[in-house]
Amino acid sequence: MCNEVALKVYMHCEGCKDKVSKCLRGFDGVEDVVVDTENHKVIVRGKNVDPIEILGRLRKKYSRNAQLVSPIPKPENKEDEKYKEDQAELKVVVLKVSMHCQGCADDIKKYLERMRGVLTVEPNMEKSMVIVRGIVDSSKLVQYIKKRLGKNAEILKQETGQANCCKKEPMWDNKWHCPPSHSSAQCICPNDMFSDENPLACCII
C-alpha cells in the first residue's frame, strides 16, 4: 500500500484522457487522478492505494499496455522460499482410526500415501492407530480421512522437528566395503597363467 502511484499509458486525445480519469476516479482509496497526455503518464493519489489493483483496473477498463512506473514491486526472493521449504517441519502424527479388517488398514495406507507431504504411513489394526510421518498439517489428515474414507480420525499425539528436504546423503562412505566374491573360480595371477606348472596354460604349436 502507498499514497501515490505513477503509471505509463498511451493516450492520443482528450477522449483517452477522460476515459482514463473516469475509470480510476471513485476506485477504492483513490482521492485524486492527474493525467498527463503529452508524456503519457498518470499519477494516482490516495490513502493506502494498492498499485497492483490500480494497474489491473487500468488494464481492464482502458488498455492492456498500461505499465506501473512507481512504486516498483519487489521481486520475489526465491532463495528465501527455497530455504523455507528446506526447513519445513517434519511431523510425526499418531491418529486413532477404527479399522475392522486388514482391508481397512490397507485402504488407509494407500490413500494417505497419496496425500501431498506424506512420507510414510504405518497402520496398526490391533490398536486402531495410524502413524503418519511427513510435512503435513495434522488437521488436514483428519479431514482427508473423513473425506476419502468416511472414517472419523482423532489426533492422539504429534511431534515436530526440522527436516531438510534437500539434504543429500553421500553415495559412498568409509563404512562401505565391496562385498566378498562368492564365485567358486579362483583368480589366477598372470605369472601363473603362463607357467609350465599350470595345466591350463596356453600351448603354442
UniProtKB/TrEMBL annotation:
Q: Which UniProt keywords apply?
A: Lipoprotein, Metal-binding, Methylation, Prenylation
| Gene3D superfamilies for the chain | 3.30.70.100
User: Which parts of the chain span the membrane according to its record?
Assistant: none
One Pfam family per UniProt: HMA
User: Which domain of life does this protein belong to?
Assistant: Eukaryota
HMA domain mapped to chain residues: 2-66, 90-154
Question: Does the keyword Signal belong to this entry?
Answer: no
One of the entry's Gene Ontology molecular-function terms is: metal ion binding
InterPro entries found in the cross-reference section: HIPP4/7/8/17/18/19, HMA_dom, HMA_dom_sf
Give the similarity note.
Answer: Belongs to the HIPP family.
Q: Mind telling me what this protein is named?
A: Heavy metal-associated domain containing protein
